[in-house]
Amino acid sequence: MAAACARTLGKVGWSFLESPAARRPGIVSYLVGNVGAHGSRRAYGTGGTGVRSKLLSSLRAGGGGGRALGCAFLLGGGLGLYQTLKFSVQQHLAEEETKAPGGGPKLTLYQYKTCPFCSKVRAFLDFYGLPYEVVEVNPVMRQEIKWSAYRKVPILMVDSDVQLNDSSVIISSLRSFLVNREKSVSDIVRCYPEMKSVNDSGKQVTEYANKYWLMLSEDETAVIYPEKGMQKEEMKWRQWADDWLVHLISPNVYRTTNEALASFDYIVREGKFGTFEGFFAKYVGATAMFLISKRLKSRHNLQDDVRQDLYKAVNDWVAAIGKKRKFMGGEHPNLADLAVFGVLRVMEGLQAFDDMMENTKVKYWYKRMERATLNHEGRD
């Protein structure tokens, strides 16, 4: 609409300039006089009515009035066209920011910011430089995902029509897609079928087959994993992050009542809570999680001092990387690096994180991972 108005103003301006009537002294006086007599009496602008009077007088004076009015229309049309083009470019750039490199899919991540599984997905997306939109889910009401039969996070929507569930499935699917873009994400995700079962407690659980595998050809696999054992090692430690490391987070961040309160203060501050929900979550939630963390310690056979289990796990990870590699992936992070980094990152700002950095050998690897994800080093 703005462009059409600009074009109309331009045409009017040219018609004034090219018209023989524009050369007649009385025409502009008549036109402007009629506007002054019959139009609105209100003057807009910082100059008030004085500016309007001077403008009308200048237009009435002499035979150049028609040309002046034509130039004014041309100027207005030009400015309008400029603003229209500027808006179009800005809108195009904004749309491009939500698209992956190479015209890739639009990604929308439904998450809890402090969830280690969601943090894993963000670490992957950031490292590979994949633009994505974040929808923070209220952990109490979960209205943001009421449309989904799958009620956990993370959920990643691809182009608003393909839904990926489970952090490891999301990462494996997207990594497979980045290697071979001839396959669509919807085709790839079929290789990770959903499996429902009932656990020992009688609760129905959902798992996904093949979720640590990338769906690649033999040639593609040889490129991604050039050395023998690399693929197996990556899969082993990705699963370790899900099955062991992630279960050390809660017992450590809720180890004492003070740590539990500090953790929930962080969760409420970073999450999506209403005023009452936030208050309830901080105090009641902290108390509940302090008690639950004791049960988790028993369930996973942790030591009385759960910090020691965290330290051992982290040092085992650093030892597996070894002294000759910057990352488990060698010169660049692989999916295991991103998974472990994503899990550990949720403790940042808490006492457990500070203790881990001080009492283990993880610091230098962790700093390298921070730089790699911040700089989107996997994008190229």
Automatic annotation (TrEMBL):
<dbReference type="GO" id="GO:0005739">
    <property type="term" value="C:mitochondrion"/>
</dbReference>
<dbReference type="InterPro" id="IPR010987">
    <property type="entry name" value="Glutathione-S-Trfase_C-like"/>
</dbReference>
<keyword id="KW-0275">Fatty acid biosynthesis</keyword>
<dbReference type="InterPro" id="IPR036249">
    <property type="entry name" value="Thioredoxin-like_sf"/>
</dbReference>
<protein>
    <recommendedName>
        <fullName>Prostaglandin E synthase 2</fullName>
        <ecNumber>5.3.99.3</ecNumber>
    </recommendedName>
</protein>
<keyword id="KW-0276">Fatty acid metabolism</keyword>
<keyword id="KW-0472">Membrane</keyword>
<comment type="pathway">
    <text>Lipid metabolism; prostaglandin biosynthesis.</text>
</comment>
<feature type="domain" description="GST C-terminal">
    <location>
        <begin position="266"/>
        <end position="380"/>
    </location>
</feature>
<keyword id="KW-0812">Transmembrane</keyword>
<dbReference type="GO" id="GO:0001516">
    <property type="term" value="P:prostaglandin biosynthetic process"/>
</dbReference>
<dbReference type="GO" id="GO:0050220">
    <property type="term" value="F:prostaglandin-E synthase activity"/>
</dbReference>
<dbReference type="GO" id="GO:0012505">
    <property type="term" value="C:endomembrane system"/>
</dbReference>
<dbReference type="InterPro" id="IPR040079">
    <property type="entry name" value="Glutathione_S-Trfase"/>
</dbReference>
<keyword id="KW-1133">Transmembrane helix</keyword>
<dbReference type="InterPro" id="IPR034335">
    <property type="entry name" value="PGES2_C"/>
</dbReference>
<dbReference type="InterPro" id="IPR011767">
    <property type="entry name" value="GLR_AS"/>
</dbReference>
<keyword id="KW-0413">Isomerase</keyword>
<dbReference type="InterPro" id="IPR036282">
    <property type="entry name" value="Glutathione-S-Trfase_C_sf"/>
</dbReference>
<dbReference type="Pfam" id="PF13417">
    <property type="entry name" value="GST_N_3"/>
</dbReference>
<dbReference type="InterPro" id="IPR004045">
    <property type="entry name" value="Glutathione_S-Trfase_N"/>
</dbReference>
<keyword id="KW-0644">Prostaglandin metabolism</keyword>
<dbReference type="InterPro" id="IPR034334">
    <property type="entry name" value="PGES2"/>
</dbReference>
<keyword id="KW-0643">Prostaglandin biosynthesis</keyword>
<keyword id="KW-0443">Lipid metabolism</keyword>
<keyword id="KW-0444">Lipid biosynthesis</keyword>
<comment type="similarity">
    <text>Belongs to the GST superfamily.</text>
</comment>
